[in-house]
Amino acid sequence: MLFVCSVFLVLCVSVSQGNTADDNGHCSDERHCDLEEELEVNDEEDGEHSDRGRASEPRTVKNEFVRIAGGEFVMGTDKPVLPQDGEGPARRVRVSDFSIHRYEVSNAEFAAFVSDTGYVTEAETFGNSFVLEMLLSESVKSEITQAVMNAPWWLPVEGASWRHPEGGDSDVTADRLDHPVVHVSWNDAVRFCEWIGGRLLTEAEWEYAARGGLEDRLFPWGNSALPRGEHWMNIWQGDFPEMNTAEDGYIGTAPVDSFPPNSYGLLNMAGNVWEWVGDWWSIRHSDQFQSDPVGPPSGKDKVCS
């Protein structure tokens, strides 16, 4: 069987150029897969958080572009948590002006794209995708006989796709239209960006936007994982992968307008889902100054930020 990775989303910039998909543009390494996009904050109060949404009428969020003034920043780090991820060395980079979605791409937004174009994602074409084990029902797990060798918490699920994130017994239309779309490959992300007249961000643009103008900080808001004692991102709490205590309010994904924005007004630039960018992935980077870098000319995997 052929599988694509599961929890990914798309971030687009508004100027069409360059990035075209290749025949092998789906993710082949869970660490480098993710795509995320952004949407407009709904004025209504959400009430108590729930990763499954609300029992009332399905809620949606309208996206918009935010203009980011270009500039120089230090990309990467000389103190990576996982050196094998290729985040070093720290290097000075300049990016030009660009526009970026305020929110992650929601299921509602991706559904509009599919409705308008008839697009079929690669996960739907392949018939399956990977899902984190703890998100699956017992009935779905009982049918699975395989796992990822070095990451056995990722299980291949027949019928898993952006419409059915945990397989056939799940459906985004009931209560997750305002959550980020997942089970989207790099090729799918490129097609979506083309539909809105944009392209995927470069890794440099993504990191510049995520930092929100801050230098040498661990998070988009500073160095504290719990600013003011509050959760500002949707990540795992507890013993991975056995127990997520959901102290941030969510077991799975969170709505795209959850948590405070960074200083550029962008939400969920840390946590929630991985985000696709246009670059080929590499662990080798020059420490010399670069202007508008686009990554290696070729490669095997695409970068997820």
Automatic annotation (TrEMBL):
Q: Where is the composition biased (Basic and acidic residues)?
A: 49-58
What does the entry list under GO cellular component? endoplasmic reticulum
List UniProt keywords, sorted A-Z.
Answer: Signal
Cleavable signal peptide:
1-18
Composition-biased stretches (Acidic residues): 39-48
| The name this protein goes by in its record | Formylglycine-generating enzyme
Q: Which Pfam families match?
A: FGE-sulfatase
Q: Which InterPro entries match?
A: CTDL_fold, Sulfatase_Mod_Factor_Kinase, SUMF_dom, SUMF_sf
Question: Domain Sulfatase-modifying factor enzyme-like, which positions?
Answer: 64-293
**Keyword check for Signal:** yes
Give any GO molecular function from the UniProt entry: formylglycine-generating oxidase activity
Region labeled Disordered — which residues?
A: 39-58
Tell me its family. Belongs to the sulfatase-modifying factor family.
